[in-house]
């Protein structure tokens, strides 16, 4: 799964370069998670997950607190979580997760991004079956063998554990995300390079230079949309 880690790093580097937009999107996600349940992450798994992911992007505490306070204040602002699926050049597959207060606007913007950049929208289920919902946790400070032993002692399973450039990446089941992360924290790890649920392609495709440039323009166009939270794909960017 090393190539998949490369894709995650590429995506994170791209987002790190657009901090103000990313912070705004996290503010929305935190607000929605806090409003849908308790505003306390210890009592709200969805909120806890979003906050853990926000930490890996260094989202300021002020933005987190503002979003939670907004939810506590009973704001009537409502959002829908919608997923779009589509195709890019040369057999590339793309999943787009959105959070929107205007479904018609979001659908039109996502469709336009595909159409203007060499892609096309698919129907629900046309792409998602080729991806696996996976928890990914990456950190430094332990070896692959140490982490494997740690999880075995805690009677926890992992889909895969790899070590690359001193970073250990654990791939595990989504419902094991918090348990695995808390076990790792218990071993002295306090900072994570990545801690999120993602959609990993079961197989990846490689594009030539020209086609890859077109594909990356499509991904950039989708990620630039205000309502888009996550974009997943099956192209090897390593």
From TrEMBL:
It comes from the Bacteria. Residues 3-74 form the TACO1/YebC-like N-terminal domain. The keyword Transmembrane does not apply. Its main location: cytoplasm. It is found in: Cytoplasm. Residues 79-235 form the TACO1/YebC-like second and third domain. It holds the Pfam family TACO1_YebC_N. GO terms for molecular function: DNA binding. InterPro entries: Integrase-like_N, TACO1_YebC-like_2nd/3rd_dom, TACO1_YebC_N, Transcrip_reg_TACO1-like, Transcrip_reg_TACO1-like_dom3, Transcrip_reg_TACO1_YeeN, YebC-like. Keywords: Cytoplasm, DNA-binding, Transcription, Transcription regulation. Belongs to the TACO1 family. YeeN subfamily. NCBIfam families: PRK00110.1, PRK12378.1, YebC/PmpR family DNA-binding transcriptional regulator. This is Probable transcriptional regulatory protein QQS35_14345. It comes from Aquibacillus rhizosphaerae.
